[in-house]
Write a structure and sequence with these properties.
The complex is a heterodimer of chains A (462) and B (414). In chain A, 43% of the residues lie in helices and 2% in strands. Chain A is mainly α. A two-stranded antiparallel sheet of chain A has the order 1-2. A two-stranded antiparallel ribbon of chain A has the order 3-4. The longest helix of chain A is centred in the N-terminal third of the chain and has 27 residues. Chain A is elongated, with a radius of gyration of 30 Å. The mean pLDDT of chain A is 84. Helices cover 57% and strands 3% of the residues of chain B. The chains are: A mainly alpha (462), B mainly alpha (414). Chains A and B meet through α1 of A and α6, α7 and α12 of B.
Chain lengths: 462, 414
């Protein structure tokens, strides 16, 4: 017995030794070493003589990594993708092929995963390509990869990616914010989209969701906007780009700052002129913007981000503008002359009266806070809302028939659950949110002014 | 040669192991071995007597200390670097996955073995006089083991870790009066965050291991001082008539030791007074053997068997690592570590039942007169806990609904 036990002890000790060797062997033969070996052989083929060949083949295997503190990632992709920056590898088989069309987006500054997705830290193929459990961010297919441009190019036109511009335009004009929050502004009926791109939904899912919302998430309250395939793709691009990641200053500033031209577009789009004037041309509600750029850049930026902080009680809304958009706006204001404004106003259908100023502001709010999402860009309503009275979101064109202006203001302030069609039925998915915490009383009054300006003539009753 | 011998003698300072004196000296002249008795009962060395569960637990603890110290070299206890370090262990550290796997499986193994060890002790009645105190130490060691496993659970800072600790500490907060405050003290805040990670790390690598080491020393010491492993009553032989009485002070009962003609060691000092417990001296000489080599070789085999088992597991089974912890994204269902799933199951039915009644029962349901009742109660507790753990682990789906493990719930993670 004792002898047996001693033998068992030695046997187990040898087994333990074997296991350690096995574990070391396992650790010492990762697949990336094979890739590096193959790459060296490929490289050696091009060498003129045996000495040079031997020198190439003698390169010790090592992990290549790009530390990107500004992008908060470490990419080890070039451990296997060894020819990415080597033009002589343009016909090499994957994973060694040269990456054409990189332009200024060199891997040493940008890495790979910021555009491609995947798991930069990983060193084996499956895991690195992110096609494993618990890595929510697999490689983006070629169809969607350009959406990643929007992660840094947050405003203005992105060269070569018209989808992003279109996606942003659709988002702001179709009233998506009525239900969805983005960067803190918007309703709460639908999910917050600030980091939608970081949720790692499949792009195909998003696209289908825009085409037929109920097909991919049953019972979704989202109305069918009857987008075209191109529009759905554009919105998908925009959603994928919304990762709310903090990009290092290098990535958000270099050569992507839009100039005064973009600032002018914003100035017009945001209807600044409905309150402000430049050298006396424009509205008088807000201050003259002539010479406003003599303030420090920080002051100007703060004024655009949080006007109340600069001037307590200021009625200027806090606009949701990207840092670079604010810079563009300031650049425009720096150069704007009264003549420019005259030109801008000339494009408007009619000169602005003081009432028009309020109505224009109300219209801007109507678009900005996404009322159009449910009530329609033309206030026509008609978005299906099962089991609400009439089965759809009401049109706002005949409000004055049934309500006073004060009643409408109260509904905007406090919100309202729609009256039920069938009291035993389910709660309708859409409802009017309360806006009093988002909008100031002044904003709500302007919205009512805007609505009243759109009321159609009372139908003749007999 | 002479010099080498002299050096060796200066280290071991004992007689040759071929003599009984050498065998005893090996034990009691050696600081690491002297926690053993020089001689052990033959009966107690049988595997079926104790299943060596205490030793296995101790050896798993040794593996945990070794691998844990190695892991500490690669770990930064703050988010999100903690998670990145896990990825580095997985992908670039030489033998990193093996190291982490060993730590993980040894940790789970230790929880299991502590539990089995306590079952063995309970069913053999080994917690009874004079071993009551050691049972209490053992209960504290169980709690410390669970604490070590629980604090280690958070360190990878992935979704599994984050939500298991969130749920686990929530269960704790159901404890009456102090539950909420203890949770806050543990987390350094109201929810699991940076502060919690640092606190768990400090507990995991410094506070709890120190306490385990201290209590283990006491535990081993008391095993020895309480007369070694317990034995069935019917195997305890009646004391012989030929006991010699040494010294007879006026006020105390005389101390008796067995006279032996073949005894080669001597009693160094005689103190007077009544012995508090059954002593080795009452044992039959022929029932015991020297610890060397009989006990030591068994311990060595157990050590190697434990180590190789954990190594084989670590070669083929990878420790889980999910996505980076995301406080905004609750997995459905969120589960506590498996050994708390019984409690979570109870809490899911009734906070009062799981947070107050069940733990209180464990403390209060002590020693009714009839041992039969105690056995039944303990068995019911063990079986119920196991059943609830199995249900919690394999049969709970989104919304804590009963879902068999073979049914795949589509979109369950949303």
């Amino acid at each position: 017995m004792e002898r047996r036990l001693q033998q068992l002890f030695f046997a187990l000790s040898i087994l333990a030794l074997v296991l350690i060797v096995a574990a070391a062997w396992q650790a010492n033969t990762p697949s990336w070493k094979t890739y590096q070996h193959n790459f060296l052989q490929l490289e050696a083929q091009g060498e003129p003589n045996a000495v040079a060949k031997a020198a190439v083949l003698a390169t010790p295997p090592e992990i290549h990594q790009v530390m990107l503190t500004g992008l908060q990632r470490v990419d080890r992709c070039t451990t296997c993708h060894l020819g990415v920056e080597d033009p002589t590898m343009k016909d090499a088989p994957e994973p060694f092929r040269y990456h054409a069309n990189l332009g200024s987006h060199i891997p040493s500054k940008f890495g790979c995963t910021i555009c491609h997705g995947g798991q930069g830290l990983a060193t084996d193929k499956e895991a690195a390509h992110g096609k494993v459990a618990f890595w929510p961010n697999p490689l983006l297919s070629n169809d969607y990869i350009r959406a990643s441009c929007g992660r840094c190019h947050k405003e203005g036109d992105v060269p070569g990616v018209p989808e992003l511009t279109e996606g942003r335009r659709l988002f702001e004009s179709q009233g998506c914010r009525g239900c969805h929050k983005l960067n803190g502004v918007g309703g709460s009926i639908g999910p917050d989209l600030t980091a939608e791109g970081a949720n790692h939904r499949a792009p195909e899912w998003l696209e289908q969701h825009f085409l037929t919302p109920n097909a991919v998430s049953a019972g979704s309250a989202m109305p069918n906007f009857h987008f075209t395939r191109e529009q759905a793709r554009a919105l998908t691009y925009y959603m994928l780009s919304l990762t709310s990641e903090e990009m290092g200053s290098y990535y958000s500033s270099v050569r992507v700052i839009p100039g005064p031209e973009y600032g002018r577009k914003l100035f017009e789009e945001k209807n600044c002129i409905t309150c402000h004037n430049v050298g006396g041309v424009g509205a008088k509600t807000g201050p003259d913007l002539m010479g406003v750029t003599t303030h420090s850049l920080e002051w100007l930026d703060e004024q655009l981000v949080n006007p109340e902080l600069v001037y307590p009680g200021s009625s200027m809304p806090a606009y949701d503008l990207e840092p670079n958009a604010r810079k563009a706006l300031v650049a425009y204001l720096n150069s704007a002359t009264p003549a420019d404004i005259q030109l801008l106003l000339a494009h408007k259908n009619h000169p602005l009266t003081p009432e028009d100023v309020g109505i224009e502001a109300g219209k801007a709010d109507f678009a900005r806070f996404g009322c159009a999402g449910c009530h329609g860009t033309e206030l026509q309503g008609g978005v299906p809302n099962p089991n609400a009275q009439g089965g759809e979101v009401p049109s706002l064109l005949h409000l004055s028939d049934d309500y006073t202006k004060d009643e409408v203001i109260a509904v905007i302030r406090n919100g309202r659950a729609p009256p039920l069609d069938n009291t035993a039925g389910p709660t309708p998915p859409l409802y009017m949110p309360s806006w009093k915490k988002v909008l100031s009383d002044e904003d709500i009054n302007r919205l009512a002014d805007f609505l009243w300006s759109k009321q159609e003539k009372k139908k003749e009753s007999w | 040669m002479n010099l080498l011998q002299e050096i060796w003698q200066s280290i071991v300072r004992r007689d040759s192991l071929s003599t009984d004196k050498g065998k005893s000296e090996l034990v009691f002249l050696n600081v690491w071995l002297h926690i053993h008795p020089a001689k052990v009962k033959k009966e107690n060395m049988k595997f079926r007597h104790s299943f060596y569960l205490g030793f296995i637990t101790f050896f798993l603890f040794l593996i945990l200390i070794t691998t844990g110290i190695a892991l500490m070299c690669y770990y930064r206890p703050y988010p999100p670097q903690a998670y990145q370090d896990m990825k580095d262990l997985q992908f670039v550290v030489f033998m990193g996955p093996f190291l982490r796997n060993m730590h993980r499986w040894a940790a789970h193994g230790m929880v299991v073995c502590v539990f089995l060890h306590m079952c063995r002790v309970f069913y053999t009645g080994s917690y009874k006089k004079p071993r009551q105190f050691n049972w209490v130490i053992g209960v504290f060691l169980l709690l410390l083991t669970l604490g070590l496993s629980f604090t280690g659970y958070l360190l990878p800072w992935d979704q599994l870790a984050y939500w298991a600790i969130t749920v686990g500490t929530n269960i704790g907060s159901y404890a009456p009066l102090i539950g909420g405050q203890v949770r806050e003290l543990l987390l350094g805040g109201h929810s699991v965050g940076e502060a919690a990670l640092l606190r768990f790390y400090v507990l995991h690598v410094a506070v709890l291991p120190s306490l385990v080491i201290l209590l283990t020393i006491v535990h081993f010491w008391r095993v020895r001082k309480d007369g070694g492993l317990s034995r069935p009553v019917w195997k305890l032989k009646p004391e012989r008539e030929t006991l010699v009485t040494i010294g007879a002070p006026a006020e105390a009962a005389p101390l008796t030791v067995k006279a032996s003609t073949t005894k080669t060691y001597g009693l160094m000092e005689v103190v007077t007074g009544k012995p508090i417990f059954e002593t080795v001296s009452a044992e039959e000489e022929e029932d015991t053997v020297f610890s060397f080599p009989y006990a030591f070789v068994r311990e060595a085999v157990t050590l190697m068997a434990t180590v190789t088992t954990i190594m084989v597991m670590s070669l083929f089974l990878n420790a889980p690592l999910e996505e980076l912890a995301n406080p905004a994204k609750t997995p459905n269902p969120a589960k506590a570590p498996w050994y708390f799933l019984g409690l979570q199951e109870l809490v899911s039915h009734s906070a009062l039942l799981g947070g107050v009644v069940a733990p209180a029962l464990m403390v209060l349901a002590r020693r009714p007169r009839d041992r039969k009742w105690v056995l039944w109660l303990f068995t019911i507790f063990v079986v119920a806990n196991l059943v609830l753990i199995v249900i919690g682990t394999f049969f709970r789906g989104p919304g804590w609904a009963l879902v068999p493990p073979w049914v795949h719930v589509v979109g369950g993670a949303e």
